[in-house]
Specification:
The chain has one domain: 2-Layer Sandwich (Alpha-Beta Plaits), CATH 3.30.70.1490. The chain is 39% helix and 28% strand. It is built from 2 helices and 5 strands; from the N terminus they run E-E-H-E-E-H-E. Strands 3-4-2-1-5 form a 5-stranded mixed sheet, covered by helices on one side.
Length: 109
């Protein structure tokens, strides 16, 4: 099962951690895992490569996880853009979890 935890401070989404394999199909054929991976990579590229915000990103092959944490203080419009982006990621993954409840869980912590 893939678990995606969104970190929050009040109303602010500060980052996320995606961990585990969904197990919906064999490795290399798992469309749920591919959807999660693609969405997470898009979010990371948007934050770091397009907005150039230098969010902290940690990837662990040992526990099959990726963690992204936004810088603590961002100025607008970067803050607003990041919040929109991470909220959209959350909605996308919640929709995926509703479609594949045995394979993905989304939490807000």
């Amino acid at each position: 099962m893939t678990t995606v935890s969104f970190f929050t401070e009040g109303d602010r989404i500060t980052g996320f951690r995606a961990q585990g394999h969904s197990g919906s199909a064999p490795a290399g054929e798992d469309l749920v895992c591919a959807a999660v991976t693609s969405a997470v990579r898009l979010a990371e590229c948007a934050v770091n490569d397009v907005l150039c915000l230098e969010a902290s990103v940690k990837v662990s092959e040992r526990d099959a996880s990726v963690t992204l944490k936004l810088p603590s203080r961002l100025e607008d419009p970067a803050e607003e853009t990041c919040q929109t982006l991470l909220a959209a990621l959350m909605v996308h993954l919640v929709n995926l979890a509703e479609e594949y409840p045995e394979n993905i869980t989304v939490l807000e912590v």
